[in-house]
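Hi both,

Apologies for the delay on this - the queue was longer than expected. I finally got the zinc ion-bound model through. Below you'll find the protein sequence and the ligand SMILES exactly as submitted, and right after that the structure tokens for the full complex including the ligand.
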Amino acid sequence: MSRFLDVLAEAERFHGHLCPGLIIGVRMGLAALKLLKSSRSKDEEVVAIVENDSCAVDGIQVVVGASLGKGNLFVEKYGKMAATFYLRETGEAYRLLLTQDGGNRLFSSLSEAGFFSQDEGAGRKALEVLENIGDDDLFKVQRVIIKAPPQAQIRKSVVCDECGEPTMETLTLEINGKRLCIPCATKKRYYEPLV
Ligand SMILES: [Zn+2]
Ligand SMILES: [Zn+2]
């Protein structure tokens, strides 16, 4: 339990608040590392492919050491409380899904124990009920096969002939003899400069 609480505290610092989604992500990440007999990735030893963009993802990131910046976190927006964890070294992968029963049990246990009360101390004390809920009570686990996710690579930058901004070479296009970034090539960008 203390390891769980330690890592949950770390996840809370990263996420900004303590919520059921974060708890689910932390439990899912810990269960996955146990299945893969691995520990938190320093680099990209373990890859996580998450199936939603909820609070749980932040729990997974902290526990597993998967992040956008390291390139070992991928998002498939299926809207499911599920994720697959892949160990590069062995090619092993497990998909974990929070079952409906598991979710109900987690919420009702936390709620009965006072997790949602206004009293913060009582809310934290309620986390003890999680000790009585096993990984099997929460998750359906499938052994799966996935295509090895691409490894992060450092690519060189080139300067866009139109806007003059350094851009990763592989994300530029050659149009009429000019090397252009995507916004210049497509004439579409998500922002408009004020001046
Ligand atoms: Zn949250
Ligand atoms: Zn450009």
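Main takeaway for now: The chain has two domains: 2-143, 157-186.

I'll put the files on the shared drive as well.

H.
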